[in-house]
Design a protein that fits this description.
This protein is of the alpha+beta class. It is built from 3 helices and 4 strands, in the order αβββαβα. The chain has a 4-stranded antiparallel sheet with strand order 3-2-1-4. The longest helix is centred in the first third of the chain and has 32 residues.
């Protein structure tokens, strides 16, 4: 029974720690993207597709830019990507990144091919940190509950002891 408590409680705690770590690392990288090197770029094409999944409308933006005399092409608008929940928001993004428009391209120093157009902090990562913390606490309590034998069935009749 004690091994079961360690496995179940430890499993929840492990998943919570890994989720929290991943989200903290994403936030760290998002914050770093604000200080990346920049270069001018140009939108080559932009389009959107109707929802085919739960992620809603997908906007596709392709742009080109030059760093150190070498030309690059990319499609990443943000570091984490994502869809839009309405056609109106997808069209707003298309208007913002119309073909031929000049844009500022952000890229990490020494990795110019890893570019984005919009550095931002993804707010869902804060939710992930909270969810990870809940999983750690739940795993700890669940493990303690099983470990200390609180999962045993109660007596059939409370009044038998009197």
């Amino acid at each position: 029974m004690k091994l079961w408590a360690i496995l179940v409680g430890g499993g929840f705690a492990f998943v919570g720690i890994m989720l929290g770590y991943r989200c903290v690392d994403d936030i760290r990288q998002d914050k770093a993207s604000f200080s990346w090197s920049t270069t001018p770029g140009e939108i080559v094409s932009a389009s959107y597709s109707r929802p085919t999944t739960k992620w809603g409308y997908r906007v596709s933006v392709e742009y080109q830019y030059e760093v150190g005399g070498r030309r690059y092409r990319s499609h990443r608008v943000t570091r984490t990507g994502g869809g839009y929940n309405s056609e109106e928001k997808a069209r707003e993004m298309l208007a913002k990144y119309a073909a031929g428009k000049r844009v500022t391209v952000f890229f990490p120093p020494n990795i110019p091919e890893a570019s984005i157009l919009e550095p931002r902090i993804t707010k869902s990562n804060y939710f992930g940190i909270g969810l990870g913390a809940v999983a750690v606490v739940f795993g700890g309590f669940l493990g303690k509950w099983i470990f200390t034998g609180q999962s045993k069935k109660p007596k059939e009749d409370f009044f038998d002891d009197f």
